[in-house]
């Protein structure tokens, strides 16, 4: 890992503006922010796989070599794009309680992913360390500030919510992409899947699954957000039990 003179990883230093910006070059108006926005436009139009230094340079109206004066590598560019894309977390109601706060936090995080699905494809290269990533982490922790939880428990809970939201959003995006690829929709896809399982599942071999099928669970697609809400509520229930336990100890 490349470090700057202060021991900060190079990509993180760039995100925090700790690296010296280049002086005026041959391309008037070129800036780090402009390069990052050009990368976001490429990713939004054609996916993260289309993001390359040469493609982003063309989008920014500059040469590839000019980009390297601002961004050292593609991985660094992706980190900067991700931080810019997620932006600041929405303000949470300080009087709403921890459950309402975490619920709002999770929905807002999910909305970011679904609005910009390319962000789900950015590789996770390390723990959160860019300005907006830490802003989201701080907002999640703030929702738990008035509970009796230990500080390490608060952090673990925020990371748990983050992983849940990211995974659920990934599945939602992938499912939607898959059904659109065959000119279908989720209702038709679930109905087809249910019919397939009725042909494949033998009650003697898969008794529990057979009961699910016979109950008609797979005869229709879930209502929008139904699975997300169910999982979110169960995690919140578990957090509530831990908070009550800590408060009583």
UniProtKB/TrEMBL annotation:
Location of the DNA-binding region in this protein: 52-71
Name of the protein this chain belongs to: TetR family transcriptional regulator
HTH tetR-type domain mapped to chain residues: 29-89
InterPro entries found in the cross-reference section: Homeodomain-like_sf, HTH-type_TetR-like_transc_reg, HTH_TetR, Repressor_TetR_C, Tet_transcr_reg_TetR-rel_C_sf
PROSITE patterns: HTH_TETR_2
UniProt keyword list: DNA-binding, Transcription, Transcription regulation
Pfam family name, one: TetR_C_1
GO biological process: negative regulation of DNA-templated transcription
GO molecular function, one term: transcription cis-regulatory region binding
């Amino acid at each position: 890992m490349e470090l700057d003179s202060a021991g900060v990883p190079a990509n993180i230093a760039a995100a925090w503006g700790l690296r010296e910006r280049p002086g005026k070059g041959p391309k008037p108006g070129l800036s780090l922010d402009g390069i990052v926005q050009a990368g976001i436009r490429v990713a939004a139009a054609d996916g993260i796989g289309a993001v390359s230094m040469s493609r982003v340079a063309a989008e920014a109206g500059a040469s590839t070599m000019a980009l390297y004066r601002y961004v050292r590598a593609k991985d660094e560019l992706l980190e900067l794009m991700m931080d810019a894309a997620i932006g600041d977390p929405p303000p949470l109601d300080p009087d709403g309680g921890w459950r309402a706060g975490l619920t709002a936090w999770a929905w807002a995080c999910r909305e970011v992913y679904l609005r910009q699905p390319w962000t789900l494809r950015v590789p996770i290269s390390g723990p959160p360390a860019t300005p907006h990533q830490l802003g989201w982490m701080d907002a999640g922790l703030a929702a738990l500030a008035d509970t009796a939880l230990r500080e390490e428990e608060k952090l673990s809970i925020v990371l748990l919510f983050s992983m849940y939201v990211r995974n659920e959003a990934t599945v939602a995006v992938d499912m939607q992409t898959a059904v659109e690829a065959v000119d279908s929709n989720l209702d038709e896809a679930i109905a087809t899947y249910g019919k397939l399982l009725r042909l494949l599942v033998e009650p003697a071999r898969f008794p529990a699954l057979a009961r699910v099928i016979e109950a008609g669970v797979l005869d229709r697609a879930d209502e929008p957000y139904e699975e997300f809400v169910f999982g979110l509520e169960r995690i919140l229930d578990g957090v509530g039990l831990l908070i009550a336990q800590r408060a009583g100890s």
